[in-house]
Structures are given as structure tokens and as C-alpha cells.
Amino acid sequence: MFSINKNEIMVNEMVRDKEVRLIDVDGKMIGIMSSKEAQKIANSKNLDLVKIAPKANPPVCKVMDYGKYMFEQAKREKEAKKNQKVISVKEVRLSASIEDHDFEVKVKNAIRFLRSGDKVKVTIKFRGREMNYTSLGEKVLERFAKAVEDYGTVERKPKLEGRNMLMILNPKQ
Q1: Looking at the structure, do residues 129 and 145 belong to the same domain, yes or no?
Q2: Other C-beta atoms within 10 Å of 100: how many?
Q3: pTM exceeds 0.85 for this model
Q4: Same domain, 19 and 73
């Protein structure tokens, strides 16, 4: 006995149910019959018997061209994959005592990332005694959010996690 993968569709002789509900090529209901009779009907039309709803009671089978069905299925999946946008997260690292010019360069980079549709994770890492001045880091992040507000919105407000303070920005639509 062979095992059948859950994603695998049962075709022709693999359909071994006692009774099946049969649907014609046109989508018209033929009725409930034995799987052998359904197979004979499919063979007489030179088509395949495909189980499309195995969990139904009785299972639903359709008379169709299996090769054409699989081709169209693959085509639909490819089209769906083409239409989806992968959003990646880009990171911009700052320090609590960042100079103005460095800050402006980081803002320009973040704006470029937001324009291309990526999320931006802004991180400030506190070293040594800087942990006593986390409020400075929060002010820098708020200033950063203000600088890029035309291109992105704050998804996650500045939050201290260990020695890092994080903020996440979403691109504006």
C-alpha cells in the first residue's frame, strides 16, 4: 500500500471510494455513483476522474483534463506570486550623541528605504555610562521620526530592550 501526500490530488485509479458525487466537465451535477461507474464515464469521454473534495461525504469527483487543470493551477500560483510584494526591514543605527550631519545622512538613507517600500528599524545602542541617559536616545528617535514623517509613520514607538532602543517605521502608502 502506498501513502498519499496531503497536497497530492487523487486521479483515476487512485479514487477508491465506494461512492462519489460526480460533476461533469461543464460543472453540471451528474449524481452519486460508485467510483468504478464514474471512472467508466471519464474514460468514455477520454478525460480524467479527479477527486476535488476528498473530505466531503460522499467525496466529490469531477471529470476533467488533469494535465490542463495542473497547468492552469501552476499558472495561477505563478501569477499570485508575481503580484505579492516582499517587505523587508532595513536597519539604521544611531548613537545617543549623534552629530547633525551624521543624523541628516541617516535620515536620507531611511527616506530612501521608505520610498522603496521597506520598513525601517531605527536602533540606538547605549554603551557603558550612556545607559544613564536613555532619555537622550529617546529624544533622538523622536527627532528622527519627525524628520521622516512625510515618508513614513511610526509603527512601534521607541522602546528600550536591554542596551538597545528600537523604533520601527512603516512606509506611507
Answers
A1: yes
A2: 7
A3: no
A4: yes
Shared domain check, 123 and 105 = yes
Question: How confident is the prediction along the chain (173 residues), in pLDDT tens digits per residue?
Answer: 344 444 677 888 888 888 999 999 888 898 899 888 889 888 898 998 888 888 888 889 999 988 888 898 899 888 888 877 777 899 999 998 899 999 999 999 999 999 988 999 999 999 988 889 889 999 999 999 999 999 999 999 999 999 999 999 999 87
Q: How far is CA 154 from CA 91, 149, 150, 164, 171, in A?
A: 14, 8, 11, 17, 9
| Final residue of a structural domain among 59, 81, 103 | 81
How many structural domains are present in the chain?
A: 2
